[in-house]
Amino acid sequence: xxxxxxxxxxxxxxxxxxxxxxxxxxxxxxxxxxxxxxxxxxxxxxxxxxxxxxxxxxxxxxxxxxxxxxxxxxxxxxxxxxxxxxxxxxxxxxxxxxxxxxxxxxxxxxxxxxxxxxxxxxxxxxxxxxxxxxxxxxxxxxxxxxxxxxxxxxxxxxxxxxxxxxxxxxxxxxxxxxxxxxxxxxxxxxxxxxxxxxxxxxxxxxxxxxxxxxxxxxxxxxxxxxxxxxxxxxxxxxxxxxxxxxxxxxxxxxxxxxx
Length: 259
Hints:
flat; 71% helix; mainly alpha; 14 helices
């Protein structure tokens, strides 16, 4: 084929060349997008981050109240009522809004607690407030849970006063017994708690060991601000382990033989 024929053929059929160019351009654009996905992903991440961090700024007074409340929470069971009241204040005044999107998210991320557990603490604060005139007040959530089943603050004061007058250890079981004897709690409440007696001690301790192993492996993830709280939990664990050790020594075969 002569050069003139080739030129003539190209002039008559320009479309295939144009289509090829368009396909080449689209392919090159696809390649560019494939090679640089970070830009689009980064854009998505930024938009997501903005949605999560959309919070309400607290006033200086609210920030000060939040600091006081969180300081009380860090003391844990050593100041039970103060801790319960602190959670109550944070939820009621919405002091969590500057750092978290909801109260459940705040207690889970900040204190590693379930919202349901904290809800019991908040209810306990109301129960203890009803007993503000009593010399001694409940010191744990179990006591408050039983007292919280009573209908009125007068009933709570009546039962708690009788419990203190008994000079026995004021356990939740004793509170329930006194309330039943006074006709303020019905028997089904006792039956509802009966399955708890069937808990397997060895299964519970095995579960606890696994939980402690998990904590040991992931303790590096704890925020610096929560270190003091973690130390308190560790101290409480040691205390419980010492009590278990003493109980085991009383049941040991050697001691039984000696007796």
